[in-house]
Design brief:
The chain has helices spanning 26-51, 57-72, 74-80, 86-107, 114-131, 138-165, 174-177, 186-217, 219-228, 245-248, 303-308, 340-347, 407-410, and strands at residues 16-17, 23-24, 288-293, 299-302, 312-319, 330-339, 355-360, 365-369, 379-385, 388-389, 399-402, 415-421, 444-449, 455-457, 459-468, 476-483, 488-490, 492-493, 503-511, 514-524, 546-553. The protein is of the alpha+beta class. The protein folds into three domains: 13-217, no CATH class; 245-421, Sulfite Oxidase, Chain A, domain 2; 444-553, Immunoglobulin-like. The chain starts with 15 loop residues before the first strand and ends with a strand. Bound molecules: ligand MTE and molybdenum atom (MO). Ligand MTE binds at residues 78, 270-276, 318, 320, 360, 362, 364, 394, 407-408, 411-414.
């Protein structure tokens, strides 16, 4: 009597009786489980999306994954989770959830408790992840998880029942529908199953998308707040009025060479690196930051308090320790904010304090020696970037900017606290994940033009790029370029606002037909030329000379 069609979508050709005695194919059970998992995820997104604080269950699971995986894949973790790979992580979590759901569905044919038990475990995982996530509220996550588990279990139960009986609710009353003695038309029940499964799947897609949209819609909150903010005029003039155009504002290069990075990088082109799966959307009206720890007078500042204090504007080149030789995880901007020294002086740093820790609203932390500030380098609690309030991606409403230190030890975005402690007492986020405790920036240079593999016409051509060794006593004093095995030629240098920024460089070269290789090396203000020794990015920044190959045709 086994006439259930097995022509499509069924992986197990022998249908098994459910506890009610009816036949559900493995394929149908897997589809039921996957759809149920989708409904559960969607319900979780909707509940957190429409009532929450900007973090979803899936988002929290993703964040927990990033924090956990960071240790194992420390070598690449910082760059893996840069902007482009975050959607991939979310998609991965959804796919894995659907696969687990499919497995739960097929296991539920024999043991109906497995479905709800599996969903409950998933719900607990969501609650656990949320409890570790500073951006999410655990109370809401418990409610969202509970509703998601209920919705998932109910969907699975309902779909298996339709698969078995052809009805969700029997015409003659629910009690009779589960009776094994009720004959069903297998074709009708198959049609009914796919009807219900399709409807539930459509609900999951629509609701899940709406929930995720609503979460993302929160980004306009920050955009609206930014539009209202009037930054005070800085007390200093970082850029003399007579300075060249490249220094006056973002988007202009020191040399008219196509493809050369602008001296001041526009905020929307500035590299972004952080562990945040969902960008923190900080409410500037309720935000505050503390100065705490080993200080005589701990205090707390609102955003208005910060804006009321004297503001400095400084050009500082920020770079990421994960920047490979020739990489793009480096940028120069005009940062405006309250000097960190002003805040520390007000707090009264105790003599035993040897480390400054920066904490973020999302739980991320940095730490660097108090001694780093002894040389007069720029250190800001920045509220502005290139003359506008910080964009959400770059730390709105306030972040740390410390010249000469890689971002992972210094540049806390979405700042919530500055804490004075000792070097022994605390390690920032990346330190237990295998990165060096201290992160001074290494001297580096990069070729922007020509591009790798470019094909250029013979004749005079520009070779150009950027070089940096940011720090009050460093900066770039010389850049040299070598084509093939020729002489090292000194490049022309663009001006710099200070030694804390990069410099653009350029050489003219008479291109002759053939395949060529160009390499670059920089010398910093201490007279030291960057080493040609190749070192990987971990644990404290890459070294080596950037090389590019290109072709010249007659
Ligand atoms: N809250 C928070 N701040 C952070 C990070 C982070 O993961 N979370 N990453 C740091 C790292 S590794 C770098 S290189 C800089 C990058 O700053 P940007 O994204 O504005 O370029 O931010 C730093 N600040
Ligand atoms: Mo970084």
């Amino acid at each position: 009597m086994s006439t259930v069609p097995t022509d499509s979508l069924t992986t197990d050709p022998s249908p098994r009786p459910t506890p009610s005695g009816h036949l559900v194919t493995a394929g149908q059970a897997q589809i039921a489980g996957a759809v149920a998992a989708g409904v559960a995820l969607a319900v979780g997104e909707v509940v957190t999306g429409f009532s929450g604080d900007g973090q979803s269950l899936v988002g929290s699971v993703g964040s927990a994954f990033i924090d956990q995986a960071g240790g194992d894949v420390a070598r690449t973790a910082i760059s893996i989770f840069s902007t482009g790979d975050k959607p991939a992580l979310i998609v991965g979590i959804v796919i894995i959830s659907l696969l687990v759901g499919a497995w739960l569905g097929s296991a539920s044919r024999r043991r109906p408790w497995i479905g709800p038990a599996g969903f409950a475990l998933f719900g607990l995982l969501g609650v656990w992840a949320t409890s570790r996530d500073d951006l999410a509220s655990t109370g809401l996550a418990v409610v969202a998880s509970a509703l998601a588990v209920l919705a998932g279990s109910a969907t699975l139960w309902g779909l298996l029942r339709v698969a078995a009986t052809g009805h969700l609710v029997a015409a003659t009353g629910p009690a009779r529908a589960v009776r094994p003695d009720r004959p069903t038309d297998p074709h009708a029940s198959r049609r009914a199953f796919f009807g219900y499964a399709g409807a539930a799947g459509a609900f999951a897609v629509v609701a899940g998308t709406a929930g995720a949209r609503s979460l993302r819609g929160r980004s306009t909150v920050v955009d609206d707040a930014r539009a209202q903010i009037q930054l005070p005029a800085p007390t200093n003039q970082a850029v003399p009025a007579s300075a060249p155009a490249a220094m006056q504002g973002p988007g202009v290069a020191s040399f008219p060479v196509d493809g050369l990075t602008p001296y001041i990088v526009p905020a929307d082109q500035f590299y972004r690196i952080d562990t945040a799966l969902t960008v923190p959307q900080v409410n500037v009206d309720t935000w505050s930051m503390k100065v705490s720890g080993m200080v005589d007078n701990p205090f707390e500042l609102s955003f208005a308090d910060l804006l009321a204090m004297p503001q400095a504007q400084e050009a500082v080149t920020l770079s990421c320790v994960s920047n490979e030789v020739g990489g793009t995880l480096v940028g120069n901007a005009l940062w405006q904010g309250v000097p960190l020294r002003t805040l520390l002086a007000r707090a009264g740093v105790q003599s035993g304090a040897t480390q400054i820790v920066g904490k973020s609203v999302d739980g991320f932390t940095v730490g660097f020696p108090t001694a780093a500030l002894d040389d007069g380098r720029t250190a800001l609690v920045a509220v502005g970037m290139n003359g506008a309030p910080l964009p959400a991606l770059h730390g709105f409403p306030a972040r740390l900017v410390i010249a000469g230190l890689y971002g992972y030890v210094s540049a806390t975005k979405w700042l919530s606290e500055i804490r004075l402690t000792t070097l022994e007492d605390f390690d920032g986020y990346w330190i237990p994940r295998g990165w060096s405790k201290e992160g001074p920036v290494k001297t580096q240079s990069r070729i922007d033009v020509p591009k790798s593999g470019a094909n250029v016409a013979a004749g005079p051509m520009a070779i150009a790029g950027v070089a940096w060794a940011p720090g009050p006593t460093r900066g770039i004093t010389k850049v040299e370029v070598q084509v093939d095995d020729g002489e090292w030629v000194e490049a022309k240098l663009g001006d710099a606002i200070s030694d804390e920024t990069w410099r653009e460089w350029m050489v003219q070269w008479d291109a002759v037909p053939g395949t060529h290789q160009v390499q670059v090396r920089a010398t910093d203000g201490t007279g030291e030329t960057q080493t040609s020794d190749k070192a990987p990015v971990d644990p404290d920044g890459a070294t080596g000379w950037h090389t590019r190959r290109f072709k010249v045709t007659a």
